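[Automated response] Your request has been received and processed.

Submitted sequence:
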Amino acid sequence: MGGIPNGETILIRQDSLAASVRSLGVAVPKERAEEVRKALQAAGHLRTGVPIERDGDTVFIPVQGNVSEPYPIVEREFRDARAPIRSYHDVADVPPNLKPLLPRSFDVVGDIALIKVPDGLTPFETEIAAAILRANSAVKVVAVDEGVKGEHRVRRLRVVAGPKRTETIHREYGLSFKVDVARAYFSPRLGTERMRVAAQVEPGEAVADLFAGVGPYAILIATHRRPRIVYAFDANPDAFRHLEENVRRNRAVQVEPRLGDAGTLLATIEPPDRVIVDYPQDPDPAYRAALSRVLPNGTIHYYAILDATQCALRKEDLVATARSFDRGAAIASVSEVHGWSPTKKLYAFDVRIT
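Generated structure:
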């Protein structure tokens, strides 16, 4: 894969078969592999264009000519390095019986790949990361993603390949966002959803983004639509620092960043026409705060992680909660944003306050 597209879809799928070439190879214990490789190279017997491969504790070094070695010489299939690499699966140095466990997709934020490694592949995470770098020229750093933790939804990351950094520039819809993926939550999978919400904003609206992070919703709305103002709140100081920088970077003059608790800040601004509640782990407190402030005929964009049964019930709950605030509500739309687990998905509810 030659590069990362300049758009919102940064979920990279990896499915293909590698081309191969048959060659003689020296079978060497892995602890002696580098020593033998140098000797073969010095003698002119190392075959170029055919990469060295490993199977368990044995390394196979492709050779040419009359080779005299104390180790066995075998004929086997090697990957053809001259063939284009279409997937990191092609070059991942893991045992063949574990290859089916390789993740078929991973996220890329800027030039950083975030990959979740199954337990059975943990001993090979360095090899997997090296393969991702080799197969994706735009990726410079690979980090193992151990899940989102804490009230600020920060990913637990371990850099396993490339420079030891977690800050990058992510580009989306002509905008650029500086983000530290280990200090502020950012999902490239939400690019399409962010544009879906932005497309609904009418000229002159006041919008409140309650969990703005580094600013992707707020800045997209400010630069692609014509709102009067976009309030962007976040309680994470690291995210807020990048939010302010990204507002300047993208000249999003309608965005007003504020640091602090979303519910508290919402009570200090004018009643908004539209509220974004992108905190799917626990959205209900913010939803109730939004109900008390949003204007009549306004919209609340509400996100939650649910299974199909819970989704159906949540529609009823959102309307009932609005009634408890003496507000009428109608569910304008419900959509699946992306998968979250084998049984649950991230759902988006557009709640129209009538």
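Summary generated for your ticket: The CA atoms of residues 36 and 78 lie 18 Å apart. The chain has eight helices and 18 strands.
If you did not submit this request, please reply to this message.
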